[in-house]
Structure formats: C-alpha cells, structure tokens
Sequence to fold (676 residues):
Amino acid sequence: MTNINTDELTPALERFSAALERLEQAPLFAKKNHRSRLLDTAERLLRKPGGVEAVYQSAERFDAAGVFEGSDWAFPSRLQPGLVPRTLAEADRWTVTLECLSQLRILALSERKVSRPGFSAEQASHFLKELLALTLEYVFDHHQTEAARINAAAFQLPRNVLRYVAENIGYDNLLEQLVEEIWRLLRQRPIRIEPVKLMITKLAVYCYDPQHENIMIPAGAERLISSLFSPSPNSLGDPGTSVYAERLTTLDSQALGEEAGACARSMYDTGLVSPYHAVLVRYLVKENPELLVTALGLSSTGVDGLLTYRELVHAIIDKAVHPETSQSILGLSGMLERAVLHFPGVASSLWRQLTLPLTLETQNRLIASCGSEQPPDVYLLAGLLSMLGQPLGIGQGDNPTCQSARALSWWAYSDPDYLLQLLAWAGRDDGVLMTFRGQRISSAFLPAGGAGVVGSDLDPVSMVLVPHLDRVYAEMCRLAHKAGEDPHLHVNPEFHGWQVGGGFAIAVDVAHGKLHEYETFIRLFYACYHPVYNGGNPVIHPQPVGLAVTDSLARFVGWHAITILRVAIDQTGETRVYFFNPNNDSGQDLGNGVVVSTNGAGEVYGESSLPIAEFASRLYLFHYDPLEVGDQTRIPAEQVQTVMQLGKESWAAQKIPALDDLIATPPAQLPSTYPK
Fold:
C-alpha cells in the first residue's frame, strides 16, 4: 500500500477488528446489538487510505459473523445491481456501509476467497461488472454529477469501495470489459432489457462527457450507444422524439426508406430498439404503410403475415408501440417471422386482447413493474408481442419460478393460442383454469405457491401469469405427491401439455436422494436423444428436463427446470444439446470444464448448448416417447463412463449409494419408472 498514513489507519483498524471479534463471539440472539458497532467502525475505516483493503481482508470473517443476517443482503444470489445506485445515493450511512461490505463480500466470492451456495464466482463477477457499469460516476470521476459535488463526503465511501473493486477486476480495461459484458447479455436476446439499457446509458454519459475526450472508446461501444440514441440518419445527435417526429414529416419516400432500413439493421444487429424506431413505425402506419416491411426487417415469411393480417397488425402497432415500449417492435417482427398469426386461434385472441379489461390487481402489478407512462394494458400487449416473438428470451427474474418461466416459453414457442387464453383469464378474471387428472383447478382459489410473493423484475406477461401458474403448479405437486415417486412424472404432462413424452426417467431414488441405476439412465437418454443411437429422430416437440445445477467448482447448487429444444451437430462436428434455460443469464460455468455456451456453437438467439456428454452429466430427469427408444446396447461403454464420471465428480458426489444400499437393492434391468 502506498501513500498510507499507518498512524491514522492502525487505530481505526484496531477498533474495527475488536468490533468484528465481538460480533463473532456474540450468541445469535445478541448479534443485533453488536452489528451497529461493527458498521460504525467499518465506515470510519473504509474512508481512510488503505482502509478498503483492510476491510476486504476480513470479508470471510464478517460474512460468517452474521453482519448481513436478517437483512436484504443475507442472500447474495437475490441481490440486484440495478438497486445499488439508489441505495448509495439515498440510504442512511449505515445502510450504505452495509452495501459497501456486501460489494467487498461479492468481490471475495468472485475471487473464490468466500463461498456461498447458489452464487458462483462467475455470477459474482458478472454482478460486479454490471454494477460498475451502473456506477461509473463513482469509479472514474471525483464530481461527475451535481449530487456528487454537493454530497462529496457521502460519496467518498462508495467511491473508495467501487474503485477498489474496479482495480481488482481490471481498472485499465474496465470499459472494454463492460462493453463485452453488455454484448454477451444482448446475444441472449432477453425480453426484459431495461437493465442493459441503463448500463448503456451510463456508458454513453461517461464516454461522451467533455472531461473524458481523451479516453479511447472500446470497440462495440459506439454501436451500442447509437442503437438507442441515434439508430438512423435523422436521429443523429439524439434530437428527442418530438423533434424527430417533425423531421419525418419533411422526408420523401426514399429518405423514409433509409430511416426504416437503418432502424431495422440496428435492431437486428444489437437486439435493442430505439424510441426513435417506435416514432418511425407509428408514422409509417399512417403515412407510408408499405415501408413497414423495411422498418420491421421482414423476410418473405414475415411479409406474408403482415399482408394477411394487415388490419390486425396496424391495430396492434397503434395500441402497443410507443417510445416507452419500443422494444416490442423486435417482438412484433419476430412474431411475424415465426408466422405466429397463422396458428389457429391466435389472430382472434389478439383482437380480444386489444380491448381486454384488466382487473385492478392486474393493473397494479403492471404499474409496479412497468411504470405509469402508458396505461397497463398497453404494457401488457407490448410484453405479449415480445413473448410471442422472442419465446426464448423469457427470464424468471429473482424468483424461484423456473417451472412457470419454462411453461410460458413453451407455450409461446409451440402453443401460443393457449398462452393467450391463460393471459385473458388472468388479466380479466384474476385466475387461470387447468385440469389435473380430470380435476379442475382454479388459481383464484389457491394460496400463494412455492415462490410466495413474486418480485417485479419480470416482463409484463410474466408479471400477470407467474403468480397464478406458481399456485397451480404447487397444487398439482400436492395432488401428485406419492411416497417414493417424483411428482413431475404426472405434473409435467398436465402442466405443460400433451406434447410431453409419456416416458419418464429419473437418476435419483426419490425416497433416499441417492443415485439409482445411473448407467441405465444415461444409456436410455442417449438411446432417446442422440441422433446416432435413436435412429436419427429429431426432437419433435420441446421436452421438459431437470438439471442438477453446479457451481464453477462442480458443487451441487440445486435442481433446475429447462427445456430440450433440439439435438444437432455443430460446425465442428460435435453433437450438442440445445436448450432453453429460464435463468436471466444462461452462460454458466458448471465446473469440471462444463461451460454452457450461448453463442458461437450454432445457437440461435436465446438458446444455450452443451456437448451431449456434458449435458447428460448434469441431467437428473427427462421425458421421452417410449415408442421411439433406440437400442441401448449400441452406446459405447466409454461414452457412458465419461458421463458417469463427470456426474459423480460433481452434483452426484454426495448422492452415490453406500455399498449396503447396493447389496440390499439389486438393480433391475430397467427402473420401474422407465416404460419399456
């Protein structure tokens, strides 16, 4: 450490160490009395040169001591980078100190000096990169904002901590890393894009500040910024939507065509839609509808849908497409390109959606999530366009609702009229109806599901439907519960639909939580899904499967619901499983060299993929068609052993049966739950 006054630092460090020791030694019921002393001494130490480093060295200790217990910071996996700037700017001094300690703990997690179940080093690193993108004014400038200038003393504490985080991540290349992180997220084409837009806005403010005219803007940054603020010739300089609307009235057809083409290219290049694009599309509907084809970037398939349902598309644009909902244009384009309007029942359902009355509860949920710049039904229709056009962009947010998110993606992908019916019930009647084993279930009369209160970090359709789906799913699991049997055997076909395969395989003995006939399980999966061993049959309908998720050290984290979309050979000749993952960020390191790919291995936007052996090594449950099973004896033993080794060295390490169990229960040729 340089330029550190040890005479000033040492007393503050001693007081902090003493407070930390008292917190560590305090019994659980008395810890609350000692936290305030720790926060007070931590705040004073963090303000001093070298103090952040000193506190960081104690990250593992203060985390274990319970400084976060009983607070919103108790579970790192639930924290949201987007909430941090407001906390730092508006919270009281001890809350700001607690936030700063949390950032140092997450830095320790990213460097594997601290471990927390459910929050890997990679997740911690992504969290910090996103956080730094949202707090550039702390990292790079002494007084970038007026608020920072006036409240210089208050800004000193988070500035010290965030700069320390930036230095450890790589201060010199921070902007470049942030741009790479934004592009990585955008390649997954998420529906809920607000956090990314906020990051780009912060990036633009920093890069184009006159005080930073000598910095080198990273490659790719200008394309991101222009996609939001100047995607076309007449929006250069970010003139504002009102001025842009006036400019459009002066353009001839050729100039309008150039505007339309530029906006469409920007949209497809980045996955971002500028508010200027929404102004343009609304203008073209009224003044030059022939150019909608260009503005939406449609191929012949999309053009067919637009021409066939011209009146409906124009009505949808009139209601749903506004500068505040500009991202819905990408969804509308995708919906037309997927020929969704040609599905039976979809067009008529969308006409109904245009005038659907919403309950007060539904309106309040949408306002809490989307704001009030536009009416709630506008946000809902705009979100519906995004879901129908980007079914693989749905995320579960900070909610344990992967089953519901998977179902929404499933229906948007292959059963859109059913999705529209559920949405109408939920929005208008505040309840959805489903059937389980002939018994009618209404969410309106059920208690909250396993997720409890669903957070507001979801897309509009999910905000309306997920609370209802979560209740129904929990009720189905209750009705399907049977000792020694996994309820998903019955719940998945009833919850998702008839397309779910009638065969069911699980690698774990439900009653004891141990591996059960693991080799047979792997052979069956290969015989059902590997094109070399299943007769070359493709995946006809998406299929629900369960993954045993592990962190970057291959430690078991939990069970997770995903969807197999297809199995194919990539450009290198490797057989890969392509799947939908409802996590907000699907690019994950699962340990043992198993790293999920979201780009560059043949994925379409929104898909994740793994080589089939690596995928099978994290698989614990799948459905299949029992009439289309290949010859299991053809699968090479070495391939099976590779999968088994990867599994047993990761999630299954604590689930290997004891020798006594194996002797007591000799394995059958096929498990009883596998239809032959």
Remarks:
- Strands lie at 433-436, 439-442, 503-506, 508-509, 514-515, 543-550, 556-569, 575-580, 608-611, 619-624.
- Residues 460-480 form the longest helix (21 residues).
- The first strand starts at residue 433 and ends at 436.
